[in-house]
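Team,

Forwarding the record for the chain on the shared tracking sheet. I've put the sequence and predicted structure together so nobody has to dig through attachments.
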Amino acid sequence: MLWILLLSTIVGAYLLGSIPSGFLVGRARGVDLRKEGSGNIGATNALRVLGKKWGYLVFAADAFKGFVATAGTVAIVEPIAPAYAIPMGVVAAAFCVVGHNFPVWLNFEGGKGIATSAGVMLGLFPIMVFISGLAVWLILFFVTRYVSVASIGASITLPTASAVLTLMGHCDWLRVSVAGILCIMALWRHRPNIQRLLAGTEKKFEKKRPSPQT
């Protein structure tokens, strides 16, 4: 039974995570995000290319995947094998983000996992972990106007906040470990952004100015 639960969790979480929300929303709008902007199907590029409404929709959809994968797994496993509910949730967290980053449907070229990781944190971790990550993201974004800097900072905050809460008795090292794995994956996916930041060529997120009246 345990092996069946494990295999089902891995496959189910990966397939859920691999649903390419940004690609699907873009195509519904007549745009292939892989050929526009940064070429990424994540929420940031969707926001730049498609506008606020559709960019926020992509973010919500990607976060929802992470939340459902983790909270859903825990809810399903807990009545069957309570001792394995959180461990299976951790497995679901990792494979859902892997699915988002490397979707089989798009030749394994997906997003960077930030929105999906946010959903994972909301579904599996104490609420303060999510709040801490969100607060760091907002502060860094409004101070620097770099989405990449905000995302990197939030990624580092997640294992840090969960480790602090574990020392206080409100979390556990298993969840800290998966937060660390998600952080490493996020940093790896942001390698081009880090290189551009170091070179001073990373683009800031600027509001679009209205076209001049003629």
